[in-house]
Target: Peptidase C45 hydrolase domain-containing protein
Amino acid sequence: MLFVECKGSPYEIGCRHGQVARTQIDRCIAFYAKLFLKNCKIEWPQVLEHASSFEQQAKSKWPAYHEEMQGIADGAGKELLDIVAINVRTEINFGLFSDGCTALSWHTEKRAWLGQNWDWMTEQKQNLIIIKITQENKPTILQVTEAGILGKIGFNSAGVGTLFNAIRVHGADATRLPAHFGLRMALESTSVPDAVSRLESYGMASSAHILLGDTATSLGLEFTKSTFAHCKPDADGRVVHANHLLREHPGETDTVWLKDSLQRVSTMAKNAEALGEEPSWGDVSKLFEDEQNAPGSICRTQTQETGSATLFNIVMDLRSKKAIVKLGRPTETEEVVDLQL
Model:
């Protein structure tokens, strides 16, 4: 996987990202342009019209993210709205484009685990990159993301980590914080309560779930365009989530767009419980290799029915500020990357 190290001002961080990952950004834009056309019947110029309202909000409310996206655009030789569009791809057309995943947080006496299989169309695997971001007065970030996107899945030097599950509830609000901005904001936080407070203060533009962890605790933050709900750890310190709402959200209706999501939550919870109180790194990693209910399993295979495959697995221990990333399905690993802060 391409590794990009960025530091400095928001614009400098973005420019470096755009320069180094230019090829991957080109492909990422082409991927979503084709997907929007196929699924929404809208051409890229229409996508950019949708993105423009988010761009105006970002410039007003989150100027650092706006500057970073401008830097990415300039570094990659793209227009600003091209970069905005892929950053708000979850929100465009009411969150139609939703990636699947199975996520787990688990705090034991010795470890603060966060782990996830990230599932999406196999064509996008080539556009996954790892970014290290160093900026003044904020924690240093290590994350796996799609090229050109500000925030995704990773951890920071304060021991805060993020995982992401798409949830499809119709409707979006361009005046609120887009999901991938929210992931970046969480990764710039110093604790789970800090991250929750910041995201809830802005409200979220669409529906999704961010599984937050720090060295002391974890919390599943479910949200829609109008609601928030908290998934707290169970008696054994675990939160398990996939691609459907686990809590009530008054006035909002979950489509449960991936029916196998319910089975994946049940399977992960059962398998984790069987490991005992202090699992090893190998034990936790093995949880993400489960193929029950294939092809729509935790370790997912792309078929016409499932629409996506597991593109990478990440397991983090937030106390040691370490992660292992496996590219590809974890039963068929193509590359292993060790991350450490």
User: Anything to note?
Assistant: The chain is about 35% helix and 25% strand.
